[in-house]
């Protein structure tokens, strides 16, 4: 276990996970206000990226590096930032539009990380600022029609040979309990957004690999999928989680270059 995780557990030792009432209050707010409310207890909820996924991501990034400048898009409380630092990125920036989440991230990483409050759909960076970008667990907050602009902005922020990397779980088997749980959640959110404003955008079933792969390619990336077998396999032998690696063409006209 890393020193950072020891510090996280000590920091949350005297806290309790948010009760249903607080989660409902979050869901009835806007996305930004909801995360501001949830931020102090976010790391105690199931929504935080699990440590095994962070470990697998860290190891994969080490294999792809070294990286000079790395960006965590929708960084939340900083779990992905920790992975970037453990992977050896020389400079790390975390971006989120929730001030409350950024406050928690700054407390976890008081030194050595740049923090930017901004909307991921309009990244405030000069072209070719980074050679790596990641994002964890945030894609459900973007409607399908918003993703092309999101991916184009990330592509513009990456220099030649840069990579946009994120883990993606295999979809649940149709008819399984997880399948119906996700279906029910998305249906409840659509009903909520039909009767209440502002909307709270969070849909699990709209982020499908064929669509995402096509959109990333249209944004100028070359896309490949790398299995993460350490996260286990399903009954049919396929991996439970894989890494999506979207690459920018290098200065030499090919993809696959390491950090800038």
TrEMBL record:
Molecular function in Gene Ontology: methyltransferase activity
GO biological process terms, semicolon-separated: antibiotic biosynthetic process; methylation
Pfam family, one: Methyltransf_25
Keyword Transferase appears in the UniProt entry: yes
Keywords, sorted A to Z: Methyltransferase, Transferase
Gene3D superfamilies per record: Vaccinia Virus protein VP39
Methyltransferase recorded as keyword: yes
SUPFAM superfamilies the UniProt entry points to: S-adenosyl-L-methionine-dependent methyltransferases
InterPro entries cross-referenced by the UniProt entry: Methyltransf_25 (IPR041698), SAM-dependent_MTases_sf (IPR029063)
Domain Methyltransferase, chain residue ranges per copy: 71-162
Parts forming coiled coils: none
Domain of life, per lineage: Bacteria
Name of the protein in question: Class I SAM-dependent methyltransferase
Organism name: Streptomyces hainanensis
């Amino acid at each position: 276990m890393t020193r950072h995780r020891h510090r996280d557990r000590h920091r949350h030792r005297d806290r309790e996970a948010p009760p249903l009432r607080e989660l409902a209050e979050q869901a009835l707010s806007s996305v930004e206000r909801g995360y501001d409310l949830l931020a102090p207890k976010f790391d105690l909820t199931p929504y935080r990226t699990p440590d095994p996924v962070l470990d697998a991501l860290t190891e994969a990034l080490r294999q792809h590096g070294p990286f000079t400048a790395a960006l965590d898009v929708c960084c939340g409380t900083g779990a992905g930032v920790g992975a970037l630092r453990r992977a050896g990125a020389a400079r790390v920036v975390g971006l989120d539009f929730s001030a409350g989440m950024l406050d928690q991230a700054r407390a976890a990483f008081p030194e050595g990380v740049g923090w930017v409050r901004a909307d991921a759909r309009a990244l405030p960076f000069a072209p070719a600022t980074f050679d790596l970008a990641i994002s964890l667990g945030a894609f459900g907050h973007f409607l399908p029609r918003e993703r092309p602009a999101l991916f184009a902005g990330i592509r513009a922020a990456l220099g030649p040979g840069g990579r946009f990397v994120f883990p993606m779980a295999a979809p649940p088997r149709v008819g399984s309990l997880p399948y119906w749980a996700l279906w029910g959640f998305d249906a409840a959110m659509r009903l909520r957004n039909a009767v209440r404003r502002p909307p709270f955008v969070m849909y699990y079933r709209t982020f499908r690999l064929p669509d995402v792969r096509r959109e990333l390619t249209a944004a100028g990336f070359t896309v490949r999928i790398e299995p993460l077998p350490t996260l286990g396999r399903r009954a049919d032998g396929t991996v439970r989680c894989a890494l999506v690696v979207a690459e920018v063409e290098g200065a030499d006209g090919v993809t696959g270059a390491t950090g800038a």
